[in-house]
Amino acid sequence: SVGGGRPAAVLAPLADTLASFDLQAARRLVFAQVLVGAQEDPAGTELGVLISQRNAAAVDAARQAIQQGQTKLAILYGALHTADLGLQLQNTLGLQPTQREWQTVWRVPLPAAAAPELNALPALLRPGNALRFMALPLLLLVGAADYVSTLDQIGEAVTAYGASSDGYISIFLTVFLYVIRHGFVYYATSTWALDWNGEMFNSSTALE
């Protein structure tokens, strides 16, 4: 998306539910974010090719049904198929979208909606706010501590082994493990905690 990723809209409500010890709502929010994250554009990937092929088969079946005189059709498909299927229906059959209707599967009431009186509290005393403000500094603190620890391990390896093959192997393993740890964190953050596809949720009182 233009402008890069931004913090996912689900993070603040998730902090609220965790601070309120509403684990059921937190699990629902995590599950919803997983579903939304899975909808990242798969074009150019093996999954994207598979989706396109399945959509082509569905469009071909719809074309045959129209040729047989059917005037009302329904296509049941998963969320990942939406964008490509819509394009194929327009390009192949000349169909155009005329209406969009959202169906609520389930709702996740947020603490602020469930207890409006919480809004009267100072910002720092509201459930979840302290957790929000502490999350990023805590993550940076853990990353910095790991970085310093990695440098210490490298120094110990140089002191213990010097310029020997064992020393080089020890340093390599230390750096490799550091990259793996932080690579996993950054990848998880970029794919789960950042929104690359625009607004995920639009309701300010509850997530649907």
Q: Name the overall outline.
A: elongated
Q: Give the biggest sheet.
A: 2 strands, antiparallel
Distance between termini? 23 Å
Estimate nothing, just give the exact number of structural domains.
1
Approximately how much beta-strand content do the residues carry?
A: under 5%
Structural class by helix and strand composition: mainly alpha
Q: Give me the count of strands.
A: 4
Give the overall average pLDDT: 74
Radius of gyration based on Cα positions: 25 Å
Largest sheet strand order:
1-3
H-E order: EHHHHEHHHEE
Poorly predicted regions are: 198-208
- Fraction in helix: 55-70%
Describe this protein with a few key phrases.
208 residues; 7 helices; mainly alpha; 60% helix; two-stranded antiparallel ribbon; 4% strand
Please, could you describe this protein's structure?
This protein has 208 residues and is mainly α. It has one domain (1-208). It is 60% helix and 4% strand. The strands form 2 sheets. The protein has a two-stranded antiparallel ribbon. Mean pLDDT is 74; it is low at 198-208.
Concise structural overview:
This protein is mainly alpha-helical. 60% of the residues lie in helices and 4% in strands.
Write the topology of this structure:
Blueprint lengths: L5 E2 L3 H9 L3 H15 L8 H22 L14 H12 L14 E2 L1 H4 L14 H33 L3 H29 E2 L10 E2 L1
